[in-house]
Amino acid sequence: MPTALPIATVIEVTGTAYVRNPGGELVVLKPGDTLHEGQIVVTSSDGRVKLDMGPEEILNLLPEQTVTLTPELSESIWPDLEESVVFEESIERIMEALEQGRDIDLDLEDPAAGGAAGDSGNSFVRLLRIVEEVDPAAFDFASTAAAEQPEFDSFGTVTPTVEAEVPVPPIQTPPTIRIVNPNDPAATTGDILINEGDDAIFGIQITGAAANTSVTLALADGTALDADYFDSEGAGYFEYSTDNGTTWTAITGPIAVAAGNSTLLVKTDTVDDLANEPDETFTLTATLSSGESDLATATIIDNDTPTVSVNPEGTLGNIDVPEGDDAIFSVNISGAAEGTTVTLTLADGTALDADYFDSEGAGHFEYSTDGGTTWTAISGPVSVPAGNSTLLVKTDTFDDAADELDETFSLTATLSSGETATGTATIIDNDEPGISIIDPNNPDNGLADITVNEGDDAIFGVNISGAA
Predict the structure, then answer these.
(1) Which of 38, 40, 32 is nearest to 65 (CA)?
(2) How far apart are CA 371 and CA 373, in angstroms?
(3) Which residues are 180's β-sheet partners?
(4) Residues in contact with 403: Cβ distance below 8 Å, sequence separation at least 6, in sequence order
(5) Are 349 and 318 in contact (CB under 8 A)?
(6) In the beta sheet, which residues pair with residue 20?
(7) What is the sign, positive or negative, of the torsion defined by CA atoms of 255, 258, 259, 263?
(8) Per-residue burial over 265-303, b = 16 or more CB atoms within 10 Å of its CB, e = otherwise
(9) Which of 133, 316, 349, 441 keeps 20 to 30 A from 57, CA to CA?
(10) 369-378 pLDDT, tens per residue?
(11) What is the 3-state secondary structure (H, E, C) of 317-358?
């Protein structure tokens, strides 16, 4: 398709004026714009435009006009003021010719005619203005509609008056879309907070929508995963309401919205799990079919508190262990968040370090996550999985030969989230004290009897073993 040629340049614009392209698009005119053949200039009720159509050819457009730019406009030869004048002495002949219905060309010479054919005068007569000293209102022409008179500018060129073809449409303001917090619609963002397990509800405000506008709504993971809120493959829901929550419709694609202003509510579920975890986020994006969009963030407030216990099956978390056997504790953890650790520490009671795990000796302090099949030395915080888990913790006790009271020590388990629990182990002593009388002069004969000469001291031996 050939490119339209430039035909005019905008010199001056007063008020508002537009150019309509062949495709129907209206563009606001401004000085310096180049106009092309076939374009249509439209002036508003307050608009005036001055166009440069070529050397000393100026076209003035008045308010509420629509003009199609064609070569004929720029190629017309407009007479100057001198050529356009019909002097006063010719008025009577012109009026008489008009009243009698004669051709005025028979009574009026060509303006600026040179006389003979081929001279520089125009070969036609164009009556543009009659110079007279009478009030034009005194003449009554019985025409059904008075023709508007063209307007001359300072260059002596004519301003054609063209009847408006179509009204100038108002300038359209682009539509807007905004996600709001239904509980605080005046807030600067549409971000919301939800307790875990409650529905997340967003508000959407649309203004200035054109006919046939639609809105597309999309959820996206933040720190929350799809299983923490709407599960598109599970039992979760993602719905909208146009009646302030009375009825809800599943979102399956773009949603048609009414022209002008409208409001939607959008909701999705959140999952109330049992895991202690940081607060998590996901987002809602709302996009109009015209391209405008907004985004807001929902923060799920976790409602889970982890717990830890030591020997939950025992009395107050306590265990009894025979002297010399391993003390094995059970540590139960529930509702742990991802990345949780547990710190395990031993502490003396009535037992001393030498009575159980000797950190400087050959003692052992270990944990197992598989029910005691394998054991790992404890050298710092132990990682535990999210949710619920159980550890076994063991340490040795020392089987000495001393008869003594039962002794105690403790295990404390502390989660990285701060929760703590303690269990106590009681070492049951397995030693009985012994006492025997022996002959100190013959300790190995197994007899307690002695022989002593009269007058000598009688000396017995007393052996004590396993005394506490």
Answers:
(1) 40
(2) 6
(3) 203
(4) 429, 431, 432, 433, 466, 467, 468
(5) no
(6) 26, 40
(7) negative
(8) bbbbbbbebebbbeebbbbbebbbbeebebebbbbbebe
(9) 133
(10) 999 999 999 9
(11) HCEEEECCCCEEEEEEEEEECCCCEEEEEEEECCCCHHHCCC
